[in-house]
Amino acid sequence: MAINIKLAMMLNAAHRRVDQRVLFAGIVAGLLCEALLILAAQARSLEASVRADFRVVAALEADVDADRRGVAEERLLALPGTEAVELISPKRAVESLAESDPAFAQAVALVGADPVPGFFEVRLGAGHVVQAAEWVKAAEAIPELAEVAFSAPAARAVVELQFYARWIRLVLSAAACLAGGA
Prior knowledge:
Elements: H1 2-53, E1 56-60, H2 66-78, E2 82-88, H3 90-100, H4 102-111, E3 119-124, H5 132-139, E4 145-150, H6 152-181
C-alpha cells in the first residue's frame, strides 16, 4: 500500500511538471503570436505611409501646349497600375520649392524665365509599385514627356514591407493550423 501511495505521488508530481511545461509553452506561443500580430500591423501601417508618399515624376517637354498636356495626362492614366495623375504647373513648382528654400524664388527672379518645367506626379496602385521600373519604361514612350523618374529606394521599401506583412500572415496562419491540429 505504501508503495502505491509513493507511486501515485510521483506520478502526480510528474503530471504537474508536464502540465506546467505545457502551460508555459502555451504562454510563450501566445506571446510570440501577439508579437507577430503587432509586427504585421506595423508593417502594414508603415507600408501604407511610405506608399502614400511614393510618386513617379514625369516632366513635360518645354514646348508642350495645353492640348498635348491633356493627351499626355490621358496616356499616363491609361497605363496599367496608374492610380492618379496630378499636374504640377511651373508656377506651383516654384512656389513649393520657395516654401522650403526662400532663396530659390529670388534665384528664379534673377534668371527671368521659369527654369522649372511642368510635370505630373503619378501615384501607382498598391500592387503596382513592384513594377515601377516597367511602368517608367512604358511612360517614357509618351512623346510629350522629357523625363520620367521615381525613387528606387522608396519603391524597394514599399515592396519589402509588403513582403514582410505577407510573410508574417503566412507564419501566423501556419501556427493557427498547427494549433488547430493539436
